[in-house]
Design goal:
This protein is α/β, with parallel strands linked by helices and 274 residues long. The chain has helices spanning 2-23, 38-50, 72-81, 90-102, 130-138, 147-151, 176-179, 183-198, 204-220, 231-240, 249-252, 260-263, and strands spanning 26-29, 55-59, 65-69, 86-88, 106-110, 116-119, 143-145, 160-163, 224-227. It folds into two domains: 2-110, UreE, C-terminal domain (Alpha-Beta Plaits); 116-268, no CATH class.
């Protein structure tokens, strides 16, 4: 009887050990409303990729959750960064896969942490730019690049490029109307003109066009860009106006080409045609 009890206890211990190990082998990071820190959660996924751990992006499942192999390191990082997580078993994972398969959901396997560049002036602080602010807070590594680095060909060392407020037409965004007499606006124009001259360009619009063309070549070679705000349209406007001058004298000290409409070339653009 004692032997039988010992045998049962031994089997029970083995069962509990296996169950405990199984319960710990996967980490689920939900991205729905239960997530306490969404930006930091992206940083956890990026950290896993940097350390050679594959991450599954569960599109449309609980807000686009992430799953990965469990490790003490990732659990500790979740706790330190205030990221909500769940430890799940392989059985629970299988149930999740069934839900995904039966609904409008899919799984994307992430295997490599992309090397990220953010197009932003070198003298800006992380809080000056929405992209650098978000990436810094999420603890996702990135490098700054600007005109000098791009014209040197350094963009080709990156997998991903973020563009934000830049006006690639050389007209300094939408600020002229209200801020043309402000000290910061005048200084920005002088800084940009000095940079253009140092790189061999007679005016800022020519420099920005060259940068836009380098970015276009980067994408054609397989690079990724994510553009926001002014960068989404001024980029294509600059490419489309490569053979003419669309800048008023207040921006580049010479007049607009009166025939610029006839010289626009949309074959060079990414999206816009007119």
């Amino acid at each position: 009887m004692r032997k039988k009890i010992k045998h049962i206890l031994a089997l029970l211990c083995i069962f509990l050990f296996v169950a405990q190990a199984d319960a710990s082998n996967l980490l689920l990071i939900p991205m729905d409303r239960s997530q306490s820190n969404h930006l930091k959660a992206y940083g956890i996924a990026y950290d896993a990729l940097e350390k050679g751990t594959n991450v599954e992006w569960l599109l449309n499942y609980r807000g686009g959750s992430f799953s990965m192999e469990y490790s003490d390191h990732f659990e500790k990082e979740c706790l330190l960064r205030g990221v909500s997580y769940e430890r799940i078993s392989s059985g629970q994972y299988a149930s999740i896969m069934n839900v995904i398969e039966e609904n409008n959901m899919s799984v994307v396997l992430l295997e490599k942490a992309p090397k990220i560049a953010v197009y932003t002036p070198p003298n800006t602080m992380p809080w000056d730019d929405a992209v650098t602010l978000a990436l810094s807070y999420a603890e996702i590594n990135y490098d700054k690049v600007y005109d000098t680095e791009i014209l040197r060909g350094e963009l080709n060392t990156f997998d991903w490029l973020h563009l934000h407020h830049e006006d690639f037409t050389g007209q300094y965004g939408k600020f002229y109307g209200n801020y043309r007499n402000a000290a910061w606006y005048i200084q920005e124009q002088l800084t940009q003109e000095k940079l253009a001259a140092s790189l061999g360009f007679s005016k800022v619009s020519e420099l920005k066009l060259a940068v836009a063309q380098e970015i276009s070549n980067y994408v054609l070679k397989g690079g990724f860009i994510f553009a926001m705000c002014a960068a989404t349209d001024t980029y294509d406007i600059a490419l489309g106006a490569h053979a003419t001058d669309i800048c008023h004298a207040v921006f580049d000290h010479d007049g607009i080409d009166p025939d610029f409409n006839e010289k626009l070339d949309y074959s060079q653009t990414f999206a816009f045609t007119d």
